[in-house]
Write a structure and sequence with these properties.
The chain is α+β, with helices and mostly antiparallel strands. It folds into 3 domains: 68 residues, Uridine Diphospho-n-acetylenolpyruvylglucosamine Reductase, domain 2, CATH 3.30.43; 148 residues, 2-Layer Sandwich (Uridine Diphospho-n-acetylenolpyruvylglucosamine Reductase, domain 3); 111 residues, UDP-N-acetylenolpyruvoylglucosamine reductase, C-terminal domain (Uridine Diphospho-n-acetylenolpyruvylglucosamine Reductase, domain 1, Alpha-Beta Complex). Helix content is 28%, strand content 28%. The protein has a 5-stranded antiparallel sheet. It has a 4-stranded mixed sheet with strand order 1-2-5-3. Strands 13-19-18-17 form a 4-stranded antiparallel sheet, covered by helices on one side. Strand 17 and strand 18 form a beta hairpin. The two termini are 26 Å apart.
């Protein structure tokens, strides 16, 4: 394990924000994990931050601790039974690359999650989701190292405490475990999720396949979301808020065209993009910090915006939605300050 000092983080966050880490290291091999645990024990007061693809982070200033970039690689089929195939991928694998690989091997289940930025190890932390599928739907287990003790632990589905864009690793044990690998359970008899209008329309009368649905999802995402390599962003910046039925009924009385989607727990999910759109933020620009012209959920860096400028814009959006609707939006990315 090699540690550098005053490392630029600009290429390690998809916003492309200029920030530095006091210390920085890359974890490529299993031995690096063991060395990392020893190093952290020798520096007990130093904060540290685990980073995968950097697609779910906003640095508002330099990080005065150790940034740990997870670059473990490898993927393979590890088991199968009459109903499912089990595939394990290392935490540093690119998520979209892993999805395409699984489809190329003839496996279905991850196609709706195509083109989501980030790494395999970060996916369960955020419980990523898109177009009717969440990671929890195809998750089997993961292996993670306790960074206090160095012991490996296997987390099954229940232990991960998945919720909407949340998990045990995000809300309870934030930074306490380094995820080493994730194992997915992919059904041999696919359960296609095609109820989203854009997917159904583009699929038409074609027989659904993982490849076809993946291609459609990629096309939809590219038409709506900017490429971080071209325009710095972290995808959807805000979670879709969940409200109780009574709150939804009160809102509907005042805003009759407000869309909402009833959830299994009888709460209602409100599209954050619609709420922000009603406050006229789409396409807004404040210096180099802005809101994407095609999607109100996406904050973008038009060039040299700082993390502080992007976070200020986010707070202004939160305040305006709160004032108009009485709803407090929550950011999806981790704001590092």
């Amino acid at each position: 394990m090699h540690i550098t000092e005053n490392q630029s983080l600009q290429s390690y966050n998809s916003f492309g924000v200029a920030a530095k880490a006091r210390y920085f290291t890359v974890i490529k091999y299993d031995d690096d994990v063991a060395e990392l645990v020893k190093w952290l024990k020798q520096h007990p007061l130093l904060p540290y931050l685990l980073v995968g693809g950097g697609s779910n982070l906003l640095f508002t200033k330099d990080y005065q601790g150790l940034v740990i970039h997870i670059a473990l690689t490898g993927k393979q089929v590890v088991a199968e039974d009459t109903e499912s195939t089990y595939i394990r991928a290392a935490a540093g694998e690119n998520w979209h690359g892993f999805v395409l690989w699984s489809i190329a091997q003839g496996y279905a289940g991850l196609e709706n999650l195509s083109l989501i930025p980030g790494t395999v190890g970060a996916a369960p932390v955020q419980n990523i989701g898109a177009y009717g599928v969440e990671l929890t739907d195809c998750f089997f287990q993961l292996e993670a190292v306790d960074l206090q003790t160095g012991k490996m632990r296997v987390f099954d589905h229940a232990a991960c405490e998945f919720a909407y864009r949340d998990s045990y690793f995000k809300s309870v044990a934030h930074g306490g475990y380094l995820i080493v690998s994730v194992t997915f359970r992919l059904l041999k008899k696919p359960q296609w999720k095609m109820h989203y209008a854009d997917i159904a329309r583009q699929l038409g009368n074609q027989v659904p396949t993982a490849q076809r649905i993946s291609t459609i999802v990629i096309s939809i995402r590219q038409s709506k979301l900017p490429d971080p390599a071209v325009l710095g962003n972290a995808g959807s910046f805000f979670k879709n808020p969940l409200v109780e039925k009574q709150t939804w009924l009160l809102l509907r009385a005042s805003f009759q065209d407000m869309p909402a989607y009833e959830q299994l727990d009888k709460r209602y999910k409100l599209p954050a993009a619609w709420l922000i759109d009603q406050c006229h933020w789409k396409g807004y620009q404040q210096g180099d910090a802005g809101v994407y012209a095609k999607h109100a959920l996406v904050l973008v860096n038009h060039g040299t915006a700082t993390g502080e400028e992007l976070w200020l814009l986010a707070q202004q959006i939160i305040d305006s939605v709160q004032e108009k609707f009485g709803i407090t939006l929550e950011p999806e990315p981790s704001v590092i300050n």
